[in-house]
TrEMBL record:
Molecular function as annotated in GO: riboflavin synthase activity
Keyword Ribonucleoprotein: no
Protein name listed in UniProt: Riboflavin synthase
Keyword Cytoplasm (UniProt): no
Signal sequence coordinates: none
One Pfam family recorded for the sequence: Lum_binding
Amino acid sequence: MFTGIIEEVGTVSAVRPAANSLQLSIRCSKVLSDVKKGDSLAVNGVCLTVSDFSSNHFTADVMPETVKATTLQALRTGSPVNLERAMAANGRFGGHIVSGHVDGTGEIVSVRQKENAIYMEISIATKLLKYFIPKGSVTVDGTSLTVFGVTSIGFIISLIPVTQGDSIIGRKRAGDRVNVECDMLAKYIERLITTDKENPTGGLTMDTLIASGFLS
């Protein structure tokens, strides 16, 4: 579990591709201060497992499904990446609940500066639009952000100067693709109240409300 508060921007030092998977080595420092083999680290919002590490880098394997579903396939030697360690139980919850399981990729449609803020519009798959509300939360490349607006094709975010400087999202331009994770709470609520062929036991009905004591 993560919070979407980026701790460090690392640099990809090696990419070792296979047919449908790959292995990444990432040069960094801060997130290695207490790392152990098997720890979870979020790389551009994707939860990866540390398979090896040294004093200045770690290595992680990226399975075929993750390669297919995220932008990690586009990383090259020298690419900067957002890094975050899993949330400590005694730490402050600075962002929002982030699982590190990306729902899909989006494309930056426009970037505009307004005084000290950068506004970005990001297009996403239509099936994901239902999880967005103005002033809600979204994770973009691992960064916890507030949704400033919802459009017919996606959503709008605004980057404050700290976010611009402390993560890679401020370096993005129109046409770049990003990893997007929707608010986990919205997905759980949908699962609980919706009945369909994939979720035949779910759904909020009059019978369930009566059985739960909300109606008589």
